[in-house]
User: Fold this.
Amino acid sequence: MAAESVTDAADPRLADYRDLTDVALRRVLEPAGGLYLAESVKVLERALESGHRPRSVLTQEKWLDDVERLLGGDRETPVYVVDAALAESVTGYAVHRGILASMHRPVMPSVQDLLVSARRVVVLEDLVDHTNVGAVFRAAAGMGADAVLVSPRCADPLYRRSIRVSMGTVFQVPWTRLPAWREASALLHEARFHIAALALTEGAVSLDAFADDPPERVALVLGAEGDGLSRQAVAAADSVVTIPMAGGVDSLNVASASAVALWALRVRN
Assistant:
């Protein structure tokens, strides 16, 4: 294993791990640089199992055995060994999950390739909270969704908080970015998907009724909390669906809503 001890927080070898608390900066640098960060042994393990390639690993002495196990015969990826204080100085937070890895982003599939054999997909429109994005991916994996499609302005599923909250399922569920709605709805319809927008609008059909005889292929569209779905998303939908609520509650967290709807619409054969 190519382990190298690093003792200077300004060392240029640690550039990928610097100032991780600056969310706006990481949003710009990670996608443009073709990188994302995997945090913890479990997340790195799932990333490697999915065929993703590390550029480097940042860890502490006590985690070296886990790193060596994960990297196996890889003698090319540099492993930077630092103490806890230096790790916190570089990243801006206490790194207590053992491992950070700078990973090469895989090439995203085309929308057409991703949809060709899918029957249930989730579409996320403009979710800006990385925690919610990760939680939706976990629900999608647990409830058997075939793919997740994210809008151009949706938060990055490969941001480290999204990955962590998803428990690494962002590597398990295929995903890609959609174009704007005019083109996106055409792509979904060409693949014979029924677009079902989850929204509170007059005339919406209840999830119970919609799930009684669901279309063969459903694209379930969910929007950001607060603003909900855009007018363009609702206009593109073939059906607007709502989850019946009780107790004076009008809606659920987007991740909870996705889990409820995906369970109700699960493919049963």
Notes: Residues 130-142 form the longest helix (13 residues). The mean pLDDT is 92.
